[in-house]
Amino acid sequence: MTTPVSYEVQDGIAVITIANPPVNALSQAVRAGLQEAVARLAADDSAIAGVITGAGRIFVGGADITEFGKTPQPPYLPDVINAIEDSAKPIAAALNGAAIGGGCEVGLGAHLRIASETARVSLPEVTLGLMPGAGGTQRLPRLAGVEAALDIITTARQVSAAEALSLGIVDAVVPAADLLSAAKDKVRAVAEGSVSRPEASGLRPRPVADAAIFEATRKKVRARNRGEVSHLAAIDAVEDATRMDRTEGLAAERKRFLDLMQTPQRAALIHAFFAERKAAQVKEIAGLTPPPYASTGVIGGGTMGAGIATAALLAGLPVTLIEREEAFAEKARATIARNLDGAVARGKLSAEQRDEILSLKLKTATTYEALTEADIIIEAVFESLEVKTDVFRTLDAIAKPGATLATNTSYLDVNAIAAVTSRPEDVIGLHFFSPAHVMRLLEIVVAEKTAPAHVARAFDLARKLGKTGVYSGICDGFIGNRLMMQYRLASDYTMMDGASPYEIDAALTDFGFAMGPFQVSDLAGIDIGYASRQRRAPTRPPEERVVTFADGLYHRGWLGQKTGRGFYIYDDQSPKGRPDPEILALLEEARKEAGITPRSFTAEEIQRRYMAAMINEAARVLEEGIARRASDIDTVLLTGYGFPRWRGGPLHYADTVGIASVLDDINRLSADDAYFWRPAPLLVRLAAEGKTFADLDAGEAA
Ligand code: NAI
């Protein structure tokens, strides 16, 4: 059997190379191979020291996640790393590329770490509901200090080689071409005694830290990941390092790690991870190479257009932006410059790069002739079919053959927009989310005649922009907004029936949502909801219960955050909003007028209603083929709607609580409102068959 770990003595140094494509993951065979190599080194008279490195562009990409959820097989990584650390002959880690998770921990166990300039280290376990489980929480604080360790572990961020050097995580940074020889030289010097042997990181004294830093970090992660447990466990483990020696600290870490491995949160986060990856697999474009593209055009430089242009520019694509008038074009340029300033402030871009982008990569114009060379044109003008069809008629006349003609419409029918052109096969929906240079979701709305080449290009563009593209068919609101309309309605009903908007928001943020529905209304603008109700009014089914309470806010000019008042009051005293007693009084009146006797709701009832509405509509979207997989719907809600990632998305959540239980809720609620709470046939079928949404997706794959 070939082993993924090779052992070769070069000039008296054993070079131990991990070659387990694609990312050198630490599978059982790699762990065994490493353990064997370390034992061989001990017994090998021809080698005085060792170097561990990775084949290819990555050092080690982390654990083998296909082994998650299965019984761990020996040798266990912590033991392998202890063996490296306890090796009598010194061992250097030559970090040839990313050292992620367990890969970083292997490096931490070595006596020396030499990084190539392009290497990166990170401990991103918390993003999968886990924490470093092979010494990372014990060795990193001993090497880099508690504060840096807490930051790196709880943010899961990538640390560049240069920063790792300044934090003491690596001992030297060298050009990639010199890496192996530098590592060999340095470890040889230690073995020969010309340089004293560095103390193994696991055996260094316990790091000292003020208790306040742990509390401050806990507070931060609680605010960012409400209800999520792995971040807190990781902080506890780092705190252990300040009190425990290696043996005790590693045992405590391992226990915490294995406990997390059993949590539903870990399962949900892994589901989210795979769901996002799977989203890009679309059968029409399997094996299709997207036609190349070099330039983009954006039409409309308002909220969305400026954000989309920023996203493209940040990805290195030149952008030509068209506005109606010079003044609007200038305004758009200023917005983009501000967005780029933000990127500079976050360290994503240098000031020179920003200047170069603004002077060379961004062009603004007021005539469409500027777009004749663009390969992908994204329209983001007012949400009006008339305005948009005008734009597309013009585009049809001027765009070069084969250009992708995309609309960012939120609700309008992409088929109808395509129909005004002589090339409907080139028309597609690219539904970005606000702020478009920040939000990860991109719904790729495929119209009846859209050619696969453009779908392939759209998914490629999503990837290039660092976004998650999700296939959507055509319906009112596509996947995300269509679901939102329903759970929004459910929360309006709950409000009219007796819960305050504040109770509802609190219940849902407690559930883990980034914001409650009324906070979202205030952020998006009460006028947006108003316009959407107006738009739907003519086609609204007569059976649908209508709640017009927010129309009253609209007429008073209480448009939300932008006017300082909506469901909440926003001022210097409460920039994030505070409850408004007048809203409660108005609500009381509105209920009276509607003849409703208000009743009280528990937080759990509020959450169950909201989730039942969301899941029910999701089942319809799936059954109609608007979404191709349950996991795609999860991805939409996770990446675009603030759904708590550690719950895996609405349909993973439905599987967790049981589809039958969701259906029970819906059936019970239908006693009050049989129209709104009519169960989706798919939900009924799955419940009857005892199947899950995951089963459904697995069937699709089969
Ligand atoms: P906005 O009102 O901020 O911007 C629209 C811009 O288009 C204005 O600057 C206007 O001057 C320009 N414009 C209008 N007609 C034009 C024409 N014929 N040629 C060139 N420029 C023209 O609107 P916003 O919010 O940016 O929305 C744009 C589109 O994006 C709409 O279809 C909207 O439904 C959609 N959308 C909006 C989201 C949001 O959160 N605001 C989210 C996702 C999609």
From TrEMBL:
Pathway: Lipid metabolism; fatty acid beta-oxidation. Keywords: Fatty acid metabolism, Isomerase, Lipid degradation, Lipid metabolism, Lyase, Multifunctional enzyme, NAD, Oxidoreductase, Peroxisome. CDD domains: crotonase-like. Pfam families: 3HCDH, 3HCDH_N, ECH_1. Residues 477-570, 608-691 form the 3-hydroxyacyl-CoA dehydrogenase C-terminal domain. The keyword Isomerase applies. InterPro entries: 3-OHacyl-CoA_DH_NAD-bd, 3HC_DH_C, 6-PGluconate_DH-like_C_sf, ClpP/crotonase-like_dom_sf, Enoyl-CoA_hydra/iso, NAD(P)-bd_dom_sf. Residues 297-471 form the 3-hydroxyacyl-CoA dehydrogenase NAD binding domain. It is found in: Peroxisome. It catalyses: a (3S)-3-hydroxyacyl-CoA + NAD(+) = a 3-oxoacyl-CoA + NADH + H(+). The keyword Isomerase applies. This is 3-hydroxyacyl-CoA dehydrogenase NAD-binding domain-containing protein. It comes from Pannonibacter anstelovis.
